[in-house]
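Journal club side-thread
Mid-discussion, someone asked how the predicted structure for our own chain would compare to the paper's figures. Pasting it here so we can look after the session.
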Amino acid sequence: MSIIMELAKLTKNGVVLFLFVLLAGCSAVYLPKATVQSSLTTSVNNYQYLIGPNDNVSIFVWRNPELSGSFIVRPDGKISTSLVEDVPVSGKTPTQLAREMENILSKYIRDPVVTVSVNSFVGPYSEQIRVIGAAANPQAISYREYMTLLDLMIAVGGLTEFADGNSAKLVRVSNGTQLTYNLRLDDLIRDGNIGANVDILPGDVVIIPEAWF
């Protein structure tokens, strides 16, 4: 009690005392960890493009032009057609979506034949590659088949002047487990050592720190 009284004497209107009591009664509050979904691509040899939000999807229904059209995938991963609202499409291949649309439309027309194509390519977040840190143009990039680290660095404009490329890391989530790999970007980009090039998979995150001088 005497400590609190001394603090009160040193403040105007007991402001410091109020803050002292307030902070003493507070506890740290932490946000929940981010929900990170593993990419469905586990090897460069089994890649299939998956539809994602903001993709432009064309659905062609044979002999039924009134049911055909182009649709923008909403942020919630769904589209609305002339017959059916809220069709989930994100995370599916065009072929998978075509077969599902045939099943849906079979309730309204006889033996529907559906073809699906994608006119713009963004893909779901789980399939995008992110480059952060000391890259010339850090960004999220849509994966392309057989993309390598060199292709990725060309897409982001290479390293900044002060990047520590050989301390860069690649983070990959596999079966719910986060794995971290060392990268040698200085050797690859500045020294031209192609032996430092590696395969990139959808969902990879490349982190490039700055050098300490």
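Post-session note: The domain at 125-208 is CATH 3.10.560.10 (Outer membrane lipoprotein wza fold like).
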